[in-house]
Design brief:
This protein is an alpha/beta fold and 309 residues long. It is built from seven helices and 16 strands. It has one domain: 4-Layer Sandwich (Purple Acid Phosphatase, chain A, domain 2), CATH 3.60.21.10. 19% of the residues lie in helices and 27% in strands. Strands 6-5-4-3-14-15-16 form a seven-stranded mixed β-sheet, with helices on one face. Strands 7-8-9-10-12-11-13 form a seven-stranded mixed β-sheet, with helices on one face.
Length: 309
């Protein structure tokens, strides 16, 4: 029987000489995936450097897939499935061989400035791009571990987007929030016997960054759902930084929105970690443990969060 608790600590020598606290931890027999957000800038604002770091890290921790928390193309999304941004900001940037695993993506507000349906339709063009709908779910298995992943469209639940004169108002009014809520409930209800329930969206429910004190509409909508169905982790972007936030209930809230441009960040009373650095997150799942490692564009481990199930 495989020892699920075995782990190997490996220095990331491909990134240069690192101190002990900057070593990445590799769990054998785990399901690994990476989380990145707010990235599409033709390689600028350190997008290329973060992509290169992901490729190097993937030689050490081999991901089964990648997750994007939205704002996939700046500043105004894409116009069609033939938009050159798909090539210049995605295909040509995340070009390391190790990054050619499935990518599962959600829509951010900047994606709504263009043609969000084009990002959905690109699923049929790209072998690794997966966004089959505005919201969807996926189950992953590793040995006897099962994890339910729910990908939601948080944009229609951002109350300010419905204000008169708001640039997102017209497209938000076209969204069927009742139907999405029904889908969310059905997926989370069906996943109650699984080991992990993980939700991915664009807008954070909590943030100590630029939008500190301005995330209440997302928290008001999703907190009761996460508590009702015992969601273990919620990964978001929107804030251009890296954060780990833990309210009093069981759900951990992660912000991974540092795929290109970054902004200053800060703390909440519930903040566990916050840094304004370019980077991404590496997540490892065993049946009874989750580890989230926050990695910067130099390949340094900034923080590790352990979650027991």
């Amino acid at each position: 029987m495989k020892n699920l608790f075995a782990c190997i600590t490996i220095a990331i020598m491909t990134f240069g000489s690192l101190s002990a606290q900057n070593k990445v931890e590799v769990w054998e027999d785990a399901l690994h995936f990476y989380v990145i957000g707010d990235w599409g800038r033709n390689g600028d604002f350190s997008q290329q450097e973060v992509a290169d770091a992901m490729g190097k890290m993937a030689k050490i921790i081999e991901p089964e897939f990648f997750i994007s928390t939205g704002d996939n193309f700046y500043p105004n999304g894409v116009a069609s499935v033939d938009d050159p941004y798909f090539i210049s900001s995605f295909e040509n940037i995340y070009s390391a061989a190790e990054l050619f695993e499935p990518w599962y993506l959600v829509l951010g507000n900047h994606d709504y400035r263009g043609n969000p349906q084009a990002e959905i339709d690109y699923t049929n063009r790209s072998q690794r791009w997966n966004m089959p709908a505005h919201y969807y779910s996926k189950v992953f298995k590793e040995d006897d571990m099962q994890a339910s992943f729910l990908f939601v469209d948080t944009n229609p639940f951002e109350e300010e987007y419905y204000d008169e004169g708001n640039k997102y108002r017209a497209k938000m009014l076209q969204q069927d929030t009742v139907r999405q809520n029904q889908f969310v409930d059905s997926v989370l209800m069906a996943s109650q016997e699984m080991d992990w329930r993980i939700v991915i969206g664009h807008h954070p429910a909590y943030s100590g960054g630029k939008r500190k004190g301005k995330t209440s509409s997302i928290a008001k909508h999703y907190d009761p759902i996460f508590q009702k169905f015992n969601v273990h982790a919620y990964f978001a972007g929107h804030e251009h930084d890296l954060q780990v936030i833990k309210p009093k209930w069981d759900t951990y809230y992660f912000v991974s929105g540092a795929g290109s441009e970054i902004r200053p960040t800060g703390n909440l009373p519930e903040t566990v970690f916050a840094e304004s650095q370019h980077g991404f997150m590496v997540v490892s799942l065993l049946k009874d443990k989750m580890m989230v490692q926050v990695i910067n564009e130099k390949g340094e481990v900034l923080f590790k969060q352990m979650i027991n199930n």
